[in-house]
Specification:
Layout (H helix, E strand, L loop, with lengths): L7 E5 L6 E6 L3 H18 L4 H17 L1 H11 L4 H21 L6 E2 L7 E9 L2 E5 L7 H12 L3 E5 L5 H13 L7 E3 L4 H10 L5 E5 L2 H11 L5 E5 L4 E5 L5 H13 L9 E7 H17 L18 H17 L2 E4 L14 E4 L16 E7 L2 H8 L4 E2 L1 E5 L3 H10 L4 E4 L15 E2 L17 E9 L20
Parallel strand pairs: 5-6, 5-8, 6-7, 8-9, 10-11, 10-16, 11-14, 13-14, 16-17
Antiparallel strand pairs: 1-2, 3-4, 4-19, 12-13, 15-18
Helix pairs in contact: 1-7, 2-4, 2-6, 3-4, 4-5, 9-10
């Protein structure tokens, strides 16, 4: 990992605006060098037995466990997550690394009977080559683990371009991989901005796989720029996630789930609950309790134990979030609480709740990526499902109900890749696929065994031990000789 760029940029503490560290602003030439190193390393890495690749990931997971307090503290300062959430972010990386380390002794293919005698058939997974991984700032340890650990266990090498807001956490992540025994060159890191280093990585002819997590708009651009090389492109994009609260719900439980899902990480999650679709029978009660809960949440320095809401990532984020507050008011939604930044140092915004929101308002359709949620009243289960499905995204959904029939219908009818029953819209575990429908992505998944499909090609192998040429799909049945 050689820092080659002449230009630099600064990583800031979002709580104070202070500079944490200065990093190289990588150029296309830096990306070329990183890809060349990773491409050369792939020739040997792909031949390392998969169980040994998995053992390196086990050692990496152990190092993450040992350094969890240090990494969590750094995350509170570079990204702004509160302490408990920062620890959870690191724990996800630990869990994913152990899980994918285990894949080193699986990576299952298939065997199946041949239609011919004395012939054996199987399918196996093959590594693809150099993976270009472009990761966001909101899960600065977990998401690199989601992408790099399956890529590595499958035998690929990686060039990582982390978000410019959290470069130090990404640097620590890669350093720990090498400390765990990763051979030199297998993972390269390039810092900087999407329009420079990111675009060069996406377009590079020696990078056959791109895995990207970010906005829908950037995902579309990544797809277009990768198209000329027919690259494998995995996209994990936006969400506009809804929690349905039915008339038979445990309202207190629902409020607890909404507060966590809407305002955890200051709403900066692709799975954040920015819509709450509420049956009118419990609408007033839920509204009252939710506002009370939001106003009690402590905003403060994320490294302090009792802080519940930390800063958003930067000034641009504050401005975007507040612009949607103004949009909501102009659309006729009722602002119940919040709707303003916290004065003083740092990039803080108060938890914001809108009521009487129509499902087609912009604040109910567009991703805000901040601590804002919109209450949408409905009169029936059918109307609730319709409202939940009325957005272009399809990542996560939730329903609070005691009716098992409604729960199962919701599992069937909600158009999302993840559905929770009697829980909020966040909390995915590493051994199930993670991803969404519609414009949340392009059909691929992270986590679980589904992640392996992003980073491998299937190869079908046929072994004929008959000692003669046998032809499949040929009509070998002798036809009767005609008398005429």
């Amino acid at each position: 990992m050689v820092r080659m760029a002449a230009a630099t940029f600064e990583s800031l503490n979002p709580s104070t605006g202070e500079v944490i560290e200065t990093f190289p602003r990588s150029t296309a030439a830096d990306v070329d060098r990183a890809v060349a190193i990773a491409r050369a390393a792939w020739e040997e890495w792909r031949l390392v037995p998969a169980p040994e690749r998995g053992n390196i990931l086990f050692r990496f997971a152990q190092l993450l466990e040992q350094r969890k307090p240090e990494l969590s503290d750094l995350m509170t300062r570079e990204m702004g997550k509160v302490k408990a959430e920062a620890g959870g972010d690191v724990q996800e990386a630990i869990d994913m690394s152990y899980y994918m380390g285990g894949e080193g002794r699986r990576l299952f293919g298939h065997t199946t009977p041949s239609e011919l005698r004395d012939k054996f058939m199987m399918s196996v997974r093959m590594p693809v080559g150099v993976v270009g991984a472009i990761t966001p700032w909101n899960f600065p340890i977990a998401i690199p683990a989601w992408k790099l650990t399956p890529a590595l266990v499958c035998g690929n090498t990686v060039v990582l371009k982390p978000a410019e807001d959290t470069p130090l956490l990404a640097q620590r992540f890669v350093e720990l991989l090498y400390e765990a025994g990763l051979p030199e060159g297998v993972v390269q890191i390039v810092h900087g901005f999407g329009e420079e280093a990111g675009d060069a990585l996406v377009r590079h002819p020696d990078v056959p796989v791109i895995t990207f997590t970010g906005s829908r708009e950037t995902g579309v651009l990544v797809t277009k720029n990768a198209a000329d090389e027919l690259k494998h492109v995995h996209l994990e994009l936006g969400g506009k996630n809804g929690i349905i609260v039915m008339d038979d719900a445990d309202v207190d439980l629902a409020v607890e789930g909404i507060l966590w899902s809407a305002f955890g990480t200051a709403g900066q999650r692709c799975t954040a609950a920015s819509r709450v679709i509420v049956h009118r029978a419990v609408y007033e009660e839920l509204q009252r309790k939710l506002v009370a809960g939001a106003e009690k949440m402590r905003i403060g320095a994320p490294w302090e134990d009792d802080t519940q809401i930390g800063p958003v990532i930067n000034e641009t984020a504050v401005e975007k979030i507040h612009s949607y507050t103004e949009i909501g008011k102009s659309e006729g939604a009722k602002l119940l609480t919040g709707g303003e930044r916290v004065e003083g140092h740092g990039f803080y915004y108060r938890p914001t709740v809108f009521a009487d929101v129509d499902a087609q308002m912009r604040i109910a359709q567009e991703e805000i990526f901040g601590p804002t949620t919109a209450l949408i009243p409905v009169d029936s289960f059918e109307e609730a499902v319709y409202a939940a499905n009325s957005v272009k995204y399809g990542l996560s959904s939730s329903i609070f109900t005691r009716d098992v029939n409604k729960a199962f219908k919701a599992m069937r009818d909600l158009q999302t890749g993840i559905t929770y029953i009697n829980a909020g819209t966040t909390g995915a575990e590493v051994h199930l696929p993670f991803g969404g429908m519609k414009q949340t992505g392009n059909g691929h998944r992270e986590a679980g065994q589904a992640a392996l499909d992003v980073f491998t090609e299937w190869k079908s192998v046929y072994v004929d031990y008959s000692g003669k040429l046998q032809r499949a799909q040929i009509d070998n049945v002798e036809q009767p000789v005609s008398d005429t």
